[in-house]
Amino acid sequence: MTRPLEAGVVVRDLELMERFYCEVLGCRAERRSGVPESVGGPAGLGGEVVVVWLRVPSGGCVKLIRPRSAGVSAAVAVPLAGRPGLAYLTFHVDDMDPLVAALRAAGARSLSDPVVVRTRGRRISFWADPEGNAVELVDMCGGDPGPRRSN
Questions:
Q1: Angle at CA of residue 39, ends 33 and 45, nearest 5°
Q2: H helices of the chain, where?
Q3: What does R_g of the chain's alpha carbons equal in angstroms?
Q4: Theoretical Cys-Cys bridge with 63: which of 8, 30, 44, 127, CB 3.0 to 4.6 Å?
Q5: Helix, strand or coil for residue 21?
Q6: DSSP string covering 108-146, please?
Q7: 40-88 pLDDT, tens per residue?
């Protein structure tokens, strides 16, 4: 491997999703590019797409990918561990409290019950982005390790 990981997320509303990942999660838009059918088709992207590269503050990249065709279907509500393929993006943060407040203020939906789960000296919290994709937050402010669970 020569560079940090990049993860691609297929989206319906590119502008909404770019705002969410930049304003709420602190990513920075680096570039935007149209990929023509002549490249997107043979590359396995299904045809013409628009891609926005978002730099994650700690490194790595989230690529938001919007197909030019209107055939993007909504994700089916399936438990995170019950669906095949990419289940969620994980962001490691210093302190999730301000981010949880920002997510609530932005109208994001918590997928964790309770919202913040303490486990083995860290805290985790799962949220749905505006299109229902799962986002995990992890910080090391967990304090008491509590019951031993794998995570």
A1: 80
A2: 14-19, 37-40, 96-105
A3: 17
A4: 8
A5: helix
A6: PEE-SSSSSEEETTEEEEEEE-TTS-EEEEEES---S--
A7: 887 777 888 899 999 999 889 999 999 886 554 444 444 554 555 677 8
